[in-house]
Model the fold of this input.
Amino acid sequence: MVRRRLLLPLLLLLTAAAPGSSDTIRAPMLMRHIAVLASDDYGGRAPGSEGGRKTEHYIVAQFGAAGLQPGAPAGNWFQRVETGGPGIVDRVAAAVSGTADADHADNIIGKVAGSDPSKGAVLITAHWDHLGYCRTLAADRICNGAIDNASGVALLIEIARAVAAGPRPVRDVYFVATTGEEEGELGAKAFVAQPPVPLATIVAAFNLDTMAIAPAGTPVAIIGRGLTDLDPLIFAVARAQHRAVDKDNAANRYLDRQDGWPLLRHHVPAVMVGSAFSNIPLLEAFLQGRYHTPADDLAHPIELGGATEDANLHVALVRAFADPSRFRPKPRNRDARSL
Done:
């Protein structure tokens, strides 16, 4: 969410409930990515830093291994995003190590090509950046961002792998790891300014942020509920996955604190669907505690029960919304008209 040690104890895996045999994605698959991205070797993933560059190349490698095609407007994986560059602590670290800093970073964009791209596209996003070296004198200077948002990137990669390995969708499906979210959703804004397909052809967008909060069995909430025409099919897919959905709009309090917001402001139907936003007291405990501190790291428990269920739900959501026989969007001017 916007800003407002490679240690992997057994507890990390024990806190994640084991999914059933029918599930495509399992907790250890997610933890494998979190353990890399939130390690001290990645330095907190500040845009423009050495750790940020490592992160970009890790995601490209994982997208390629998953079977995705490059999806950026230039025909490669990278969409340049102008940022403020690394923070002062990261710049000092770069000077000491001889690593050059930069005032830009990249969105990483991959896609699964549909059989009929004329029917539109589905978009799924997660921001890869975090705060980097966020403390100057503390013993632990790195804000590793394990939950925010290595967890979301882990889901993004594994959802991409599952979708690419399954039946070919009719619509194109784009997977975007954005940068600069912590600086004000800069990557999402850059995507909106130069999308790989016209924004009007994106029929649904799903954002993944701060996913590793709630235990298995937690209902899902929808950030953006009531603001798009996506809700009915989301409800239907959730029921088919035996997932309960919150009946209120309480999660909408976080609407403008995540990468779906710039999309929604440009009339792209964008939501966040997940268990982390259903249990607001549990989420607020994280936001008032470990959030944006060095304690959001691998040395503390990471709950993957709800995140694993959410990952599998998103595979089903992507497949449903990529099927024109299951979802036909309403005229776009009805969506987000008052935002």
